[in-house]
Amino acid sequence: MNSPQLYPTAQISHHSLHKARHCEMSSDRVEKPLPDIPEDDGSRDDEKCFGNVFAELESVDLPLGTTLRSVYDDQPNAHKRFMEKLEVRIRNHDREIEKMCNFHHQGFVDAITELLKVRADAEKLMGQVTDTNRRLQDAGREVTAQTEEVIRCRIQQRNMTTTVERLQLCIPVLEMYSKLKEQLESKRYYAALKTMEQLEKVYIPRVSRYRFCQIMAENLPKLREDIKDISMSDLKDFLESIRKHSDKIGETAMKQAQQHRTFNSVVQKHDSGMGYTKPVYSLNGRTPTQHNGLAAEEGIDQPEEEGVEEDQSEEEVLTAQDLVDFSPVYRCLHIYTVLGDRETFENYYRKQRKKQARLVLQPQSNMETVEGYRRYFNQIVGFFLVEDHVLHSTQGLLTRAFTDELWNMALSKITAVLRTHSSYCSDPDLVLQLKNLIVIFADTLQGYGYPVNRLFDLLFEIRDQYNETLLKKWALVFREIFELDNYSPIPVETEEEYKSVVSRFPFHDAEIEKQDFPKKLPMSQSVPQIYVQVKEFIYASLKFSESLHRSWTEIDDMLRKSTNLLLTRTLSGCLQHLTKKPHIGLTELVQIIINTTHLEQACKYLEDFITNITNVSPETVHTTRLYGLSTFKDARHAAEGEIYTKLNQKIDEFIQLADYDWGMPESDGQASGYLMDLINFLRSTFQVFTHLPGKVAQTACMSACKHLSTSLMQMVLDSELKQISMGAVQQFNLDVIQCELFASSEPVPGFQGDTLQLAFIDLRQLLDLFMVWDWSTYLADYGQPTSKYLRVNPSTALALLEKMKDTSKKNTIFSQFRKNDRDKQKLIETVVKQLRSLVNGMSQHS
């Protein structure tokens, strides 16, 4: 404890004494006052002026700079006068001070005297106070020590209280930070972000002045970045895994769509009662077990497979969410949303999915097989099912516009890939399997809201290609049938065999039915086989039209158009190719004509067959008619033309065997051997023509006779033949007579009168002219419609006559002595001249 401060009594006494002495010294100066300065008018003005200045100078508040400047700047010599006035002013103040000191001097002296008296008492009192202060200090030293101890304890208590309060504030922060670490370790990143937000906004501001809180605050942004990186890594792993699971997702979804479609198809057929059965007959007697590539694989219209589908439908229905864990997407979306960077995440996710879409849309390496197409479709379906799930399970991560854009891009790529790869497919079974896969693919995605009209438009393009492959396949089938056919009527031994043929081909003939067994049907075995294969083609074409979401009217139209293509292009082409084959003879051509006639008659049954399938009346305005009538007519005409051609070729072969001795003096008296063989061949051939339509046989017979007549005429008029004797003409006449006898024997019924004999009329008139040597009549009646030799052309007669004239010249050495021969030679020369004039006249007239 500090001692009380004592008054300095001795010091005051010395000061008072000093001051008193000063006053005594000053009193000596006061006794001699300062002399007064005389004043005039000018000094009064200066006094007044400088009085104001002195007032300002003596004032403490006013600044001195302005006042002094005014003294020096007002007028010249102002400084001197100011100094003079200032001296006067100082002397005046000194006089006033001296007056005041003189007035108070005595009182001051008295006070000092009294103060000196008190000095002794003051020193005594000072000693007492000092002693008291010492004793007080000694007594308070222990109290001071205890007080200091109390103060120290109080400070410790206060510090402890403060520490407890600060710890109570820090403990929640530390607990929250510990909770944050646990959440990060357990990968609960979304909760960790919420904890960070609470730390930053609530807890850390309360204790922000502590260093550990500053370290925490600095560490939180790093933790956020770590969470973003970890969540993004999880998302990348998800995107990688989803590529592997897309195939399984798509496979599951397509199976479910297939089950649904199969169930609906069975229900519709059961309700409508439009089921149809397939024929059991196939080429070479084989029974078809399937008519398309997916019959056994896809479970379409297969009772056994329907049972399997029912068993599968009882299994648990799996969805994309069951096969794939979408939590990385949701977690990453929430994390970026909380961090205010949602747009970056959305852009990244969409960009990556676009890249994956382009990879998924790349065609597989084994697109030439069904498995390759199935895997391709499974991956695409899986991809877009994931997109659909993300679209509906998140808000804003994907938009309908984005998925539509992605789907439109995919559609363009899918159609391009399918159009390219399917164009190389030549197997109709594979094309049909591809169609069924496309339908299931389209139905699956359509169930999730994706537009698939372009896929069905593509199916119509593939349908045309499918029909092309079917046509190529059936062209091989038809050619095989034609190759294996024996081109002879079908022998029927028993009633069962007859019913078997009739069950496969609609044949009805009352006369044949009345005949006893064994008997023969007019067509060959290829006819029922062709008919059955046409029905098989219709079934195969119908398979592609199923599930295309088209009306039965459109399906009916498609079936009829494809059947027309089969008849008018494939079957007609095969028939044309068949008739052109060199090994096909006249007998085979006749049988082909008979076959085409029966196939033409069966076309109406094919139309009824299509009508029974589609239930579309043939009287409908837009119903397409089958062109079988024209097809088989064209084939028949081609076969008829081949008959005429081959018959003429055969005649030419016999003509080439002719070996006339054109210089023979006389004929042999009988027809040539080659000609009799030719006539016998024609007789036997025309007997085969009895099954042909009458006009065909008659045309063939007339064509053969005309060709024979023309060939014989060309033989006589051949330019390489230089000479012909009369004996050769007579022999040639015998051969022509045999031809005329053949024509008059009516080898083919139906000719009226001597119509067939007219084929040889040119030869007959020419030979009669030379045999009778009736030149006068020919020349006289030439150009008259009633002429006996109307069909003899002057140029033809001239050519033959010149050949005979050359023969006459060779015999001139012996015949010049015979008058008849000389006359005949002259006659020939005269006739030749007249014929040449006729020929020249004809050429000028023309």
Task: Describe the SSE topology.
Blueprint: H1 9-30, H2 41-58, H3 64-73, H4 78-185, H5 189-203, H6 211-272, H7 303-313, H8 320-323, H9 327-338, H10 342-360, H11 370-393, H12 400-423, H13 428-446, H14 453-484, E1 490-492, H15 495-504, H16 510-514, E2 519-521, H17 526-545, H18 552-580, H19 586-601, H20 603-614, H21 628-656, H22 673-688, H23 694-716, H24 726-744, H25 761-772, H26 775-781, H27 794-810, H28 812-815, H29 819-845
Antiparallel strand pairs: 1-2
Helix pairs in contact: 1-4, 2-3, 2-4, 4-5, 5-6, 5-9, 6-7, 6-9, 6-11, 6-13, 9-10, 11-13, 12-14, 13-14, 14-17, 14-18, 17-18, 17-19, 18-20, 18-21, 19-21, 21-23, 22-24, 24-25, 27-29
Verbal overview:
By secondary structure, this protein is an all-alpha fold. The chain is about 75% helix and about 0% strand. The chain has 29 helices and two strands. The chain has a two-stranded antiparallel sheet with strand order 1-2. Helix 14 runs antiparallel to helix 17, helix 17 packs antiparallel against helix 18 and helix 21 packs parallel to helix 23. It is elongated. The N and C termini lie far apart (about 170 Å).
Mean pLDDT, to the nearest integer, reads: 78
Structural class: mainly alpha
Shape: elongated
Counted beta strands: 2
Radius of gyration: 69 Å
pLDDT < 50 stretches: 1-39, 273-315, 812-817
Can you list the strand order of the major beta sheet? 1-2
Function: Component of the exocyst complex involved in the docking of exocytic vesicles with fusion sites on the plasma membrane.
Keywords: Exocytosis, Transport
Organism: Oncorhynchus mykiss (Rainbow trout)
GO cellular component, one term: exocyst
